[in-house]
Amino acid sequence: MIFVRKLCALILLGALLQSSAAGSAKNNEPAKLFREPFGVVGVHPLLLLDIPNLVERLNEVKAQWTRLGFPYRNFHGERRERFTDAYNILLPMLEQRGINVLGQLTGNRQNADWTDPDELERFREFVEYCVRTFPTVNHWEIWNEPDGEHFFGQMSNPDIYMEIVRIAHRTIKKNTPASKVVVGAFTQNGLAGERTNIPKAGYMMARMLEECYKRGLADYSDIISFHPYTNIKHPRHKMPYLRAKIGESLALMAKYGDSDKPVWLSEVGVRLGPCPSGYKGETEEVTLEDQAEWLGFIYNEIPRYRQIEKIFWMTFWNWDKPGDPDSKAYGLFNADWSRTPSFDAFIELVRKYEKDPYWVENTEPIDLEPVRYYQQGTAQSKPAAISE
Question: pTM value?
Fold first, then answer.
């Protein structure tokens, strides 16, 4: 009997050890992250002239999210009623089709002075009007690329930007406490300020993200957003560089105790046409096929990082404005609603993940070397060219 008891005890111990080893092995496996990352940017005001068609096209591309602008300048005076009526038609139709909305509170009134208390009160009233009038929108992004002088110059001052963030946060949480406040929409990763080679972009403040954290950003945000565009023809601007830019921002967020805060890429894409190749001033052409391939890389790879939840492709529709090459250089649809190769790539990815919406987590440390040459210590300087 004693022998039998010992034998049973050994068998039980062996089973426990095997179970423990199996559990340990399982715990060492990368986690699977649930994601619904497929968003699009580019609900151009012209599309509000035919809202049913707009909604059907968004439904056609199977977008889970769209970023919709609520321009400050369009919700004052006689414009307010017109835009309110349009959005009160559009938003219920999007909700009916399961398309979520990131509302972007942006767009200067002409000659707005953000140091004027009266202007700040007008902004507070604008935010309150939007969140009360459009209660189905429960994610609000504060401004667009505040670190760039092209988008409303004074905002590239972190003191001014953080003041409107605080006003927006208090107003949103007071009126709709469950809503999420998305802060940033920072150019690139919020750290790589530069004087760009795009004339209209102009100056971008270096390290805007960090300056905002020093002024309390962690307490006034539920989500941080970036626009990490990348020159895919430059030898150091491809996926390792994109990962490095994102990794640099995540490291800084961790420095300020924000390592668990979600990150959204509220704009990302690649422009058709000539791009600097990185060698002796030469350029290479970005084709429609290049664009579609880059879209695939982004949606397959970037959601594997734990903090990154949503990605909004720039853009949904090429509105083809005369004299504006950007208006026909990014979209899933052309101006005549013909599809681009990026449309096909987007749809293929949505179908790939709709039955199994999980990405295997990437836990490997991100190599930051690709961005080190970019950190010049001055926003006025461009990164050093890479020699052959």
Answer: 0.87
